[in-house]
Design brief:
The chain is an alpha/beta fold. It folds into three domains: 159 residues, Adenylosuccinate Synthetase, Chain A, domain 1 (3-Layer(aba) Sandwich); 94 residues, Adenylosuccinate Synthetase, subunit A, domain 2 (Orthogonal Bundle); 158 residues, Alpha-Beta Complex (Adenylosuccinate Synthetase, Chain A, domain 3), CATH 3.90.170.10. The protein contains twelve helices and 20 strands. Strand 19 and strand 20 form a beta hairpin. The longest helix is centred in the middle third of the chain and has 18 residues. One of its GO terms (cellular component) is cytoplasm.
């Protein structure tokens, strides 16, 4: 039995919710390994929708263990709100089905404020990143700056004031520079104490827990947030998130060694979308782009922000396949393309008159590339609800096969509607 890592192959919003739900039903443990509550997905189970942003998808299924790893930054108040919201849907989240790494970093109100202050300032200077203003980046900065407050710190109120004071030495200097009032130690202490009793029952030495689960033969599913092209190292920097989103982070962000990651499933949309600022070579600012957005219901689960839409970029996904060591992809939203007479696939770029086969790392070069397209005939018949290759139009199959050739990875699952059963299974990642 394999342990499976699920990552997005593009800029996020690839439709991970349905695929992760399908996999989590068959997993024993579901681990979230990076990011914060700045991204999310919607699970639909027996007609009921569950919107998750911090909690791993395993929490909505009985008998599953959900784990938030050390690579995640946690807003404790947002987490409590999410748990309470699920309780209203008769989903009980307690210490039996949720464990949180005791060394995970906490997001505080000062992180959210700093995030917003920077975005507002950047809006005026034209350097806006397009963050969700939820404090993710500033929290990761404190983590690598070795001044973060972590889950385990909530258990020791005697040593907590000194740690908060050290944190505020940094943040109050920033606030003074931004013309903002300083924050008192007591303000942050009160904020943390108010939520400590709700968070501490979930505290766990996660690397040890996962090692035990692995040794007993449990199926472990690792789910990330955002997409590979938002990775802080490998994405379209600086228009990226603040963490590593690629498959390798599943090991670092959970404490389970990379040798235990058996299958990497790249969730890949049949076209391309992006939220926020940054380069997007295949973006369509025309009727086709509007068609994709409306047909695909392209609005963010967490923020509600409209997504930018464009043709499938095989060069980008090929890059993601290489960086992630992708074993196979789950191709989603094929049905959104139904009825288009012609489809285009980006197979490479032209940069300053030279053809290249990957997106360069330079921000300036990314802004100058133009896509090189290959045109493929579309299909009139519907793909909605197809559950076998025989149910698909011939041109749809040709489109899928061409994508496989261009990205260098096979399609393991093919999604043909938001319904979880409308999926063509080619390879079972847990049994590969």
């Amino acid at each position: 039995m394999a342990n499976v890592v699920v990552v997005g192959s593009q800029w996020g919003d690839e439709g991970k919710g349905k695929i992760v739900d399908w996999l989590s039903e068959r997993a024993d443990v579901v681990v979230r390994f990076q990011g914060g509550h700045n991204a999310g997905h919607t699970l639909v189970i027996d007609g009921v929708s569950y919107k998750l942003s911090l909690l791993p998808s395993g929490v909505v299924r009985p008998g599953k263990m959900a784990v938030i790893g050390n690579g995640v930054v946690i807003d404790p108040h947002a987490l409590v709100s999410e748990i309470d919201r699920l309780a209203k849907q008769d989903v009980v989240v307690n210490g039996d089905n949720l464990r949180i790494a005791d060394n995970a970093t906490l997001i505080l109100s000062l992180h959210r404020e700093l995030d917003a202050l920077r975005e507002d300032a950047a809006s005026n200077s034209g350097t806006k990143i397009g963050t969700t203003r939820r404090g993710i980046g500033p929290a990761y900065e404190d983590k690598v700056g070795r001044r973060a407050i972590r889950v385990m710190d909530l258990a020791n109120l005697e040593t907590l004031p000194a740690k908060v004071d050290r944190l505020l030495t940094h943040h109050n200097a920033l606030r003074r520079g931004l013309g903002q009032p300083e924050i008192a130690v007591k303000t942050i202490l009160d904020e943390l104490i108010a939520v400590a009793e709700r968070i501490l029952p979930f505290r766990e030495t996660v690397w040890l827990l996962l090692d035990k689960e692995r040794r007993r033969g449990a199926r472990i599913l690792f789910e990330g947030a955002q997409g590979s092209l938002l990775d802080v190292d490998h994405g379209t920097y600086p228009f990226v998130t603040s963490s590593n989103t690629v498959a390798g982070q599943a090991a670092a962000g959970s404490g389970l060694g990379p040798g235990s990651l058996d299958y990497v499933l790249g969730i890949t949309k049949a076209y391309t979308t992006r939220v926020g600022e940054g380069p997007f070579p295949t973006e369509l600012n025309d009727e086709t782009g509007q068609f994709l957005g409306e047909r695909g219901h392209e609005f963010g689960t967490v923020t509600g922000r409209k997504r930018r839409c464009g043709w499938f970029d095989a060069a980008l996904v090929r890059q993601s396949v290489a960086v992630n060591g992708t074993t196979g992809i789950a191709l989603t939203k094929l049905d959104v393309l139904d009825g288009l007479k012609q489809l285009k696939i980006c197979v490479g770029y032209e940069l300053d008159g030279v053809r290249i086969d990957h997106l360069p790392a330079s921000q300036g070069a990314q802004a100058r590339v133009t896509p090189i397209y290959e045109t493929i005939e579309g299909w009139e018949d519907t793909t909605v609800g197809a559950r076998s290759w025989a149910d698909l139009p011939a041109q749809a199959i040709k489109y899928v096969r061409r994508i496989e050739e261009l990205i260098g990875a096979p399609v393991a699952l093919l999604s043909t509607s938001p319904e979880r059963d409308d999926t063509i299974l080619v390879t079972d990642p847990f049994e590969d």
